[in-house]
């Protein structure tokens, strides 16, 4: 899973989140960043009110949460979502003894670049940030 800081960096560069079932996120406040939530039709649903998307918490009596706005949530994209953001610019993925290497081209026909991270999702996130 990518780190909260990498997720913040992705959001800061303009990566947009369209919440959907299966997405994971944290509530980006000091006391809740260690608790990862998943959007599911049973517990956390996406609601739309007045043109704003909210993440509604259903049946979570242990939490004093009804809903949070998307600007309070920090999306933690999965490997497949990060690969989708890279798209056809992805050249290769290779495992070394120390890390995952993701090779990509920032623009069609451009020079190949490579990023590394011990975690595959973090390596993909670093490639997205380098695009």
Report on the biggest sheet: 3 strands, antiparallel
Element pattern in H and E = HEEEEEEHEEEH
Radius of gyration: 16 Å
**What's the rounded overall pLDDT mean?**
89
Q: Counting H and I runs of at least 4 residues, what is the number of helices?
A: 3
Strand order of the largest sheet: 2-1-6
Portion in beta strands: 25-35%
What distance lies between the first and last C-alpha atoms, to the nearest angstrom? 20 Å
What's the number of domains?
2
**Count of β-strands:** 9
Q: Unreliable stretches, pLDDT < 50, 5 or more residues?
A: none
**What is the SS-derived class?**
alpha+beta
What's the shape? Answer: elongated
Q: What is the percent of helical residues?
A: 10-25%
Features:
single chain, alpha+beta, 2 domains, three-stranded antiparallel beta sheet, 3 helices, 21% helix, 31% strand
Summarize this entry quickly.
By secondary structure, this protein is of the alpha+beta class. It has helices at residues 4-12, 79-86, 120-130, and strands at 24-27, 36-38, 44-49, 52-57, 67-69, 73-75, 90-95, 100-104, 113-117. A hairpin with an 8-residue loop joins strand 1 (24-27) and strand 2.
Topology, element by element:
Layout: H1 4-12, E1 24-27, E2 36-38, E3 44-49, E4 52-57, E5 67-69, E6 73-75, H2 79-86, E7 90-95, E8 100-104, E9 113-117, H3 120-130
Antiparallel strand pairs: 1-2, 1-6, 3-4, 4-5, 7-8, 8-9
């Amino acid at each position: 899973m990518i780190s909260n800081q990498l997720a913040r960096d992705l959001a800061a560069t303009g990566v947009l989140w369209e919440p959907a079932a299966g997405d994971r996120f944290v509530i980006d406040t000091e006391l809740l960043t260690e608790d990862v939530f998943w959007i599911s039709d049973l517990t956390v649903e996406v609601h739309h009110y007045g043109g704003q998307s909210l993440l509604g918490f259903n049946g979570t009596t242990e939490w004093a949460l009804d809903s949070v706005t998307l600007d309070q949530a920090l999306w933690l994209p999965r490997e497949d979502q990060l690969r989708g953001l890279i798209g056809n610019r992805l050249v290769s993925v290779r495992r070394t003894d120390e890390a995952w290497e993701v090779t990509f081209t920032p623009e069609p026909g451009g020079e190949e670049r490579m990023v590394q991270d011990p975690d595959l999702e973090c390596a993909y996130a670093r490639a997205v940030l380098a695009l």
